[in-house]
Amino acid sequence: MEDAAGGTVYRMARPETLKIAQLDSFTAVYHRASGITHLITAPAPEILATLGEAGLTRSALLARLAADYDLGDADEAALLARLEELVATGLVSTA
Questions:
Q1: Closest to 92 measured CA to CA, from 6, 15, 7
Q2: Quick check: bond before 15 cis, omega within 30?
């Protein structure tokens, strides 16, 4: 899905489909729809938390992450790679 400006909008999977638990430096995310538990590390948990259900474009997400976290080397290409990984797992959608 695209926003009015033409950018793809990314959304976290519906919260009721996820069970999230912090495990030391990892975050375990059980995805009920697939039955798979994913072990993720930064910046994936922060991306999920920032996206929420409403969703954001990649540039809006990068700006929000930069404002909320110390991102001295914020890189849109690196963020796109992480988003593509999260979309592939089903934890993030573009629709």
A1: 15
A2: no
In tens digits, what is the pLDDT along the chain, a chain of 95 residues?
A: 555 555 899 999 998 999 999 999 999 999 998 999 999 998 899 999 999 878 999 999 998 998 888 766 678 888 999 999 999 999 999 96
Name the residue type at position 24.
D
Residue 76 neighbours by CB under 8 Å, 6+ apart: 58, 59, 62
Residue 23 belongs to what H/E stretch? strand 18-23
For the whole model, what pTM was predicted? 0.85
Q: In terms of DSSP bridges, do strands 26-31 and 36-40 run parallel, antiparallel, or are they unpaired?
A: antiparallel
The pairing of beta strand 56-57 with beta strand 18-23: unpaired
Residue with tokens 């975050």: 27
